[in-house]
Amino acid sequence: MDGAGVLINAKYEERMRIKHLSMEPSLEGAKVQFEFEAHLIEITLPKFSSSNQAKPGDPYAEAEADVWDKHGQISNIHIYVLSVSVLALQFRLPVVAAKHPHINASLYTTEETRNLDEKSNHLYFLGRRAVDYFLRVVRWKTGLGLIALDAREDRASASGGRLFNLSHGGSFYSPAAGRTIVVPRRHRLTMKKWNDIVVALSAGLHPPIWNEFLMSAERRLDMNDLRAATIDLAIAAESKIRQFPGASRGARKNTISNIFANWTRFGFPATSRFPWFAQVKILFRVRNKLMHSGEDRDLQLVFCREAAAAVENLIVALS
């Protein structure tokens, strides 16, 4: 404790919705801890206690029994929510706020609130990436590729993500925006779009490879996984460039840097009318830096958003 406040031990906690995963009753409340991005992560499976049994179809249920054996005992529990915690954290708080058992926003100055918001945002995305990594391992070990993060139409998680003071167990901060009320983006199907889907399915068509990687990049950006998003965007752009029907045979044999250097000579449309094209070149420079050294100072969220828009424009321009 000093004039600036008191240093407390803390943890971050979030409950995230998932789909296509169940467990046997013996796994209720099971925990796993692992190191991820220099942080200690704990993931906990839900409990299905008699005091907290939800009715079938309850949108707030964290778990639901769906199979009983011949003796009437539960033999399978469907998992709707995983809890993820970031452990071994430390925060410096005003003495009054550190001793207060509940959240009280009035105990923080504007600067302290801004700082806590920034740290909470960082931990929120860290938690999403950690759960994504956990589910990748689960898919690997179970062989079921459908297991993934999920979202209700009115909330992406079962809690907004709070910071807990381990000295008394009370939560001392929650994000001001209230993440539980953020509605996930969605696309409204029209009859025309539905008919396009029916035609494609009936013909046995598959999405082009650049679209697959562009969609993967969108999912990565949603959890602030900027490295994976950048690599996916670059693959999407390169696959579209190399499959451009108007490109000469020489373009398909050259490196991407040589293609850019001889763009029009290789048969691609002039870029003078494409103000976003410079961003595509920057995308490949950042991708190469990541592949060679693992880091790049331009790897920021705003860059990735601009790069994603540029790749979308490139796909349209070369279609």
Supply the key terms.
319 residues; alpha+beta; Four Helix Bundle (Hemerythrin (Met), subunit A); 2 domains; 7-stranded antiparallel β-sheet; 3-stranded antiparallel β-sheet; 10 strands; 39% helix; globular
Radius of gyration (CA) equals 24 Å
Uncertain runs are none
Shape category: globular
What is the strand tally? Answer: 10
Whole-number mean pLDDT? 85
Largest sheet: 7 strands, antiparallel
Q: Portion of residues in helices?
A: 25-40%
Order of helices and strands: EEEEEEEHHEEEHHHHHHH
Secondary-structure-derived class? alpha+beta
Ends apart, CA distance between termini: 63 Å
Kindly give the count of domains: 2
| Number of helical stretches of at least 4 residues | 9
The proportion of strand residues reads 15-25%
List the helices and strands and how they pair.
Elements: E1 6-19, E2 22-23, E3 31-36, E4 39-44, E5 63-68, E6 74-79, E7 81-93, H1 95-99, H2 110-142, E8 148-149, E9 162-165, E10 171-173, H3 191-202, H4 209-222, H5 226-242, H6 249-253, H7 256-261, H8 277-293, H9 301-317
Antiparallel strand pairs: 1-7, 1-8, 1-9, 2-6, 3-4, 4-7, 5-6, 9-10
Helix pairs in contact: 4-5, 4-9, 5-8, 5-9, 8-9
Concise summary:
By secondary structure, the protein is an alpha+beta fold. The chain contains nine helices and ten strands.
Overview of this protein structure:
- It is a single chain.
- With 319 residues, the chain is of the alpha+beta class.
- It has two domains: 6-181, no CATH class; 191-317, Four Helix Bundle (Hemerythrin (Met), subunit A) (Up-down Bundle).
- Helices cover 39% and strands 19% of the residues.
- It is built from nine helices and ten strands.
- The protein has helices at residues 95-99, 110-142, 191-202, 209-222, 226-242, 249-253, 256-261, 277-293, 301-317, and strands spanning 6-19, 22-23, 31-36, 39-44, 63-68, 74-79, 81-93, 148-149, 162-165, 171-173.
- The strands form two sheets. Strands 1, 3, 4, 7, 8, 9 and 10 form a seven-stranded antiparallel beta sheet that branches. A three-stranded antiparallel beta sheet has the order 2-6-5, with no helix packed on it.
- A hairpin with a 2-residue loop joins strand 3 and strand 4.
- Helix 4 runs antiparallel to helix 5 and helix 8 crosses helix 9.
- It is globular.
- The termini are far apart.
